[in-house]
Description:
The complex is a heterodimer. By secondary structure, chain A is of the alpha/beta class.
Amino acid sequence: MTFDPERARRDFPILAHKVHGKPLVFLDSAASAQKPECVIEAVSDVYRSCYANIERGVYELSLRATDAVEAARCKIADFLGAPESREVIFVRNATEAINLVARTYARQHVGEGDEILVTHMEHHANIVPWQMLCEETGARLRVAPIDDRGQLLLEEFAKLVTPRTKLVAVAHISNALGTINPVEEIVRIAREHGAPVLVDGAQAVPHQRVDVAGLGCDFYVFSGHKVFGPSGVGVLWGRAELLEAMPPFMGGGSMIRSVTFEKSTYQGIPHKFEAGTPDIAGIVGLGAAIDYVSGLGLDAIAAHERDLLIYATNALEAVPGLRLIGTAERKAAVISFVLEGAHPHDIGTILDLEGIAVRTGHHCAQPVMDRFGVPATARASFALYNSRADVDALVAGLEKVREVFA
Amino acid sequence: MSELRELYQSVILDHNKRPRNFGEPPNADHSADGDNPLCGDKITVHVAVKDDVVTEVGFVGEGCAISTASASLMTEAVKGLGVDEVERLFGKFHALVTSSPQSEPAIGGLGKLQVFAGVREFPMRVKCATLGWHTLRAALEGTDRTVSTE
């Protein structure tokens, strides 16, 4: 069965809506993706038919809810190519997953004079938690540079990996530039010095097949809402032996084995890291989202988006005064650009009146903006439900922008 | 398209392209920085105040058309005004851009600044229109702090 974007589009009720009287052209999936009917149904079905707290009751409903959450955990483990489902930890989002690793694993292993290595293209979520850790521990944050196309300079990166490097944290795909990082190479280089690697996969999982075992990384994080699941649920995957040796993140219910006022003992993984009642319906919704993209086929989705990227790149390059920010050879369907004479914010407002949603601003990646000497960019990001017609609408919208700012 | 023309009036587009009082005036004795972290707009407003009157005012920075034109038109409007008059003018301007789009815009006493009435339709852009003003007020307070719209 071949992938049919028009059919996929009909799976997303919101895309039938109009904005300012115009059909919605949603080009901001890198910020958050829209939800298919099956995810919306799965969430509402939890509340309609099997909602109760998990891991607690002996009654039927609680067992059903617990099974539903654990079924989602298994789906996600399969989806990521993880050896074991207990390596999948539910958190709120990729940001929380990174903070969890910073506050547990890194707190244990990083001290004064040690180094954390990131790249220049990271999202703030993969910068700030490490900066906070460095401030507390006296460790140093090192930054691997990127070239003018927005590609990691692998040789420079290699020079920065030393025995002092206690963790490497890199984006799988840059949210601001679309660059796909060579994670296998990064892991290979880091391994030579024994440095574990955390991969921020927030922009990767909705768009291409991910195999954590194949990548060889130690931690992989993503947000449910970017892979067509509900907001408020995300995933930390970590290698079991690392997770087992890590102290808990938050203390509370569910994560304990026994509690007395003198001492508490903790559960094994994954529950050790899941204090308190999680977003039960959100987790089940994420499981449905994983089923949805797996059903369509990640390879088919990637091929469709590849076609859109090429089509959109060619169309946008033909717009007078437009400059692409981020032209990596290996790139996902994320296109940042600036337009001569028009500030991204004004572009965003004018496109909005045409029903076109793009992100404008620094995309939570201010160092990337500084690197390219721009205060902000406009960004069109594509997902499985976008079509060439959306690209045509964007180009027509940019023509309106040029008219206003002629 | 009417909302669009209402927002990007020719006066605004003109002041965006050729901002007035762009730069630091020679006798400026107070300044403040302002930024809108959400969209990357940055501005510095310089003022010279004598006997509680704004005698010189200028700005530098980069931002969207609304924030640049607003800062430019603001400098034209406040030069020669007393500090308390600036405060009153800001009050009227702020009330205009944050008022309900359904209501009749209160443009009395605003002069050219009334071109920003279109911002009422775009709540996300109110911060752009007021960034220069907040920064000017910080400069007049004499506090060299950075103001932020966030």
